[in-house]
Amino acid sequence: MSIKTLSPHYVAIPLTNPLTGTVCSSYEMRLYIWEGSKTAVPAQPAYTMTKINAAGAPGTDKVNIARIVNDFIEFACVPQAGTVLADGNNQVWVKHVCYYDDAPQTPAHQEVNLAVKGYGYFAEGENPQLPANKVLLSGDEFKVSRNGRFVFPVMVDEPPVPERVLVVQDFVRTSGIKYTATVTANFPYNDSALFVRPVGSTEWVAAGSAAAPVVPATIAAHVFEVMATAFDPVTSTIIESNIFTITALKIYLVDPGDNGHSIAVFFQANIHAANYGLEIFGLSGPGWTNVFSQPNSPLPHSFTPTGAFKARVTANGHYSNEASFSIPLAGNLYIP
Fold first, then answer.
1. What is the reported pLDDT for 1?
2. Taking the mean position of all CA atoms in its chain, how far away is CA 286?
3. pLDDT of residue 199
4. N or C: which end of the chain has fewer CB within 10 A?
5. Mean pLDDT of 298-312
6. Residue 193 and residue 109: Cα distance in Å, rounded?
7. CB 241 within 8 A of CB 168
8. 3-state class of 192 per DSSP?
9. 45 preceded by cis ω (within 30°)?
10. Per-residue b/e over 193-211, b at no fewer than 16 CB within 10 Å?
11. 87-96, 117-126, 219-228: least confident range
């Protein structure tokens, strides 16, 4: 799609946040306008507006951005020697991004278009588009002065791009309900967002950006799924990642202490809990015994008997992997 800035060009904004399904009270639209590479989106918007949904009702709002964008195009003819095919310089890239008040840090409804200082005819109505032949002039025949210059503006197609792939490779809790996400992509992107949901649910909940995700406490308390999205300015689409399921609890080291009869169980907790419990199998017959709990790793325990045992960590009804070991424990036991 292209924008002809001398004719009305309306952007339709749904008043229901497409990411959360919530009818907004207000939304903010940011316009980024720049020249050069399509992927070189500026860090700061050129224009920002906030619209109020006074009725609090669903529907669609329409914003005419043509006149705003038109102010950023300074038309200038660049003389060329002879007959040449030259890149145009009288157009700008325009990206609009919408932020809803129920998720003000999460970008939604994004699009990138090329804008030219042109117009459509009355019968074309709003948002006039390029003709099928991509020529930015009307008519088929043109007169050129013998010693004059004539510019024949043509819009060229963009080259094909490879399939876009966005992958959530890992999602690890750092403290409380704050996490670190490892996300890779085979394309450059500027805006990314993370969404989470309990396992078995179909409703995604915004969890901030991939750079600094924060998971709602009610979801962080149990096993959940993670999905990332990123806006690709080249194809002007939002790319969704794979769905990554966290590992709730994982033991990665059993430390034997000084004499091999006292252990410290180190674990990674990707669910948030007030306390994490240590259970030992084989202390009193073939069963699990809860021996200790505290808010963080590691969990210690001292043994009186010797023999073969297993350890696991529990929290909020979830269990970690099981670590098998013998007492006395001769050295560090690393769990892959």
1. 67
2. 47
3. 96
4. C
5. 93
6. 13
7. yes
8. strand
9. no
10. bbbbbeeeeeebbbbbbbe
11. 117-126
